Structure formats: C-alpha cells, structure tokens
UniProtKB/TrEMBL annotation:
The lineage of its organism: Bacteria, Pseudomonadati, Bacteroidota, Flavobacteriia, Flavobacteriales. This is Uncharacterized protein.
Amino acid sequence: MNAEEILDEITKNILNVPQNTGYAETIRNQSKAVQNSQEIIKKELAKIYDKGFKEGVQF
C-alpha cells in the first residue's frame, strides 16, 4: 500500500462508523475504527521498514 491507499483505508474506516446509534455505541465504534486504522499503519510501516531503513524513510 502506498500512503494514499493507507489514508483512503483509514478514512473509509472512520466514515463507515454508524451515526444512528446511541452515544456510547457510536464512541465504541469510533474507537474500534481508530484501532483498526492504527493496525493498518503499524502493519504497513513494519512492511516498509522490513525492507531497510533507507526505503522505510521514503514512505
């Protein structure tokens, strides 16, 4: 994934949180979306840095 694809995936995660639920459920879903987004970032950074530092910093 490139940076644009990562941002698109994160945006999709956040925007797909249902807003027609109660406050607590919405917050819980938003928290899950943020956690999923963090996992995507961690996974992609791990892939990039696994290739070496020079390639990783070009991300």
